[in-house]
Amino acid sequence: MPTAAPVLLVSDHVDGSVHVVTVPDGTVTGRLTGRHLSEHAGFLALPGGRVACVDDRRGELLVLDPFGEKLVERAVPVAVPAEHLACDPAGRRLAVTTGLGKNTAPWSDLLTVVDLTTEETARVRTRVGEPGVTVLGGGDPLVVLRHREPGALAAHRFADLLAAPPGCPAAPPHELLPLPDDGHGDAQAPGSGHVFAATGEGVHRARKKDDTLVAEAVIPWESPARGWYLRLDTRRPALWSTLRGGAPDPLRWPEWTNQAWRHDLETGRTFLTDLGPGLVFRLALARSHTAFTRIHPDGDELVLLGADDTVRRLPLPAMDGAPRRGGTPWEGVQRRAVAASPGADWVAVTRGGHGEVHIVDARTGHETTRLRLSTPLHHGGHMMLRSRNDGADGDPVGR
């Protein structure tokens, strides 16, 4: 039955399942099996509470309606392994890039574009790598690929890509802007038509002008560290990232420093908040808080940063198989996913390998519910928390 309560989508991409549960009570309202969603491409918020994601095994873009009678609204064939997923501000035109998958080096150069209204789709060849993607503007938007080594922002007209003939032809961009080789992290501001790319130098930005891109001044990190993740704050015009500093050696990950980075797009001011040492990566935006998970051998925690810059820390129970001293934080270990909705005060955090999800009230910092699902949530799984009209679709990049 349709629900008005916030819903949490929980994916175990290894086990091949997706649970849909209401928050905070944890009632399971839907489940998919045999669906191995791309954790890297993530979930993309669409208007009306819908969600897009990519099944990396079946090679399908899924449009899910967790509030409706039928969970899978649409399935469209796309090229995989999915690297990044984005849509235009209207949520109609989508792009999916391909990347590494389970390979040691990037090998696919396929880009898929989809028009959900006309049901047209096309695949073209671009450039081998692990490109980020944004879809800028209305009408005939620009598909902007963020390439590495050599770094560039490559602009393609969506209509040109959609009109490509069969056979996956090569599609050269009609414009290139130079970018450092270490780009990682993408965002766009639909209102102003800006695209942003995180690099070691700072956040590079460009503005859509007709069907071209105009480079603008780089936003500095204002720290010796850098961000590897970038997202738009739909609650106010701001960008967020987590800055990681310290020795780049992954074996020294317990010593990594972490700062919450917020850049106000209206005032141009940047704010930094220390989060503590260890592994911190993705973040989630609740109604009045920004949530981070910090993994460390001395204890994990959920860090809640309030709109007034107050910091609340909630200890989390240890994970079997968590990253250890002397090993890397990536290979063969359990991790945590975090999710929130800008229309609610709930924050969800997974306990990888245990099949548990902690539901926390960000206003109090107290755990309200602990869900126990039927899969282990390998590698922490992946999640999205949505209210039907929470405005999360104002960020048209997959997370």
UniProtKB/TrEMBL annotation:
It comes from the Bacteria. InterPro entries: Haem_d1_sf, WD40/YVTN_repeat-like_dom_sf. Residues 387-399 have a biased composition (Basic and acidic residues). Gene3D superfamilies: YVTN repeat-like/Quinoprotein amine dehydrogenase. Residues 378-399 are annotated as: Disordered. This is Uncharacterized protein.
